[in-house]
Amino acid sequence: MSAEPAQSWRITLPCTRLEAEALRDDIGPLALLDNPPVFMTSEPDPDKPDAWQLDVYVDGQPAPALIDQIAALVPSAKRRKPVIEAIPAEDWVTLSQAGLEPIDEGRFHIYTEMHAEHVPADRIAFRIEAGRAFGTGQHHTTAGCLAMLDRLASEGRHFDNALDLGTGTGVLGFAIARAFGARVIASDIDPVSIDVANENAAINAVPLGQDHGMVELAVADGLQHPRLQARAPYDLIVANILAGPLIEMAGDIAAALAPGGTLLLAGLLDHQAEAVASAYQPHGCTVEGRIDRDDWPTLRLRKRIAP
Fold first, then answer.
1. What is the pTM of this model?
2. What is the DSSP string of 218-280?
């Protein structure tokens, strides 16, 4: 007789948009658990753009210590009691994929297993499930980067050596390798993200390695990792992280970009775009394009070629 599936539980708290933005990159020590909870954020009411909701899914009834750890990640809700409820175990897949409709951004198509029967044959398609790492293609920042990559390909641009900084699920690195045949290295500060990217590469038959059309994966904090330094300079860098790190790392990122190279910056909100772009100007990088997905812009910069 097969064992009954573990009961799943959901913990719900309100949060701000900035907290939701931060959680997509860092869930703290919870990411190191053998079976980490799955975090999902949403905007229940578009008329209240700062009032977001956090839903955390766990297997088994959550212990008080786990609930306290989750609540600590959303300080704005410190006076709110979490809503904790059991959900049917068999509904977990449906819940985890709720709202994850396929994404079409030009030549790219991102889908989950639930939509595997309807993948267009004329697209560069990747199956990316919701789960432990950010970057399903549903979030506006990932979609904006895919749209900008499609625009670059439509312009006939060619790239040989690319860096996907803060790769999450790996989808942007995969897209660069497939669309441009570039040699790609994809890095993330979170080891869980690199594990997920490795799994996604296998699912999507993306070859791992250091040759053209391949993706090399690396756990790296910033640009100081030996492999990232060894492969620099890059003619394309995609950095889909957060506005703060994008500003702090402007010098390092610009230094890793070859003269004439292209830089895509995402993970920032509309009101942060000017500050982010300004941080790169002293390093010879100027904005030459932009794509907006709601309040989330993707900036395209080019590094000046010295006279």
1. 0.73
2. EE-STT-SHHHHHH--EEEEEEES-HHHHHHTHHHHHHHEEEEEEEEEES--GGGHHHHHHHH
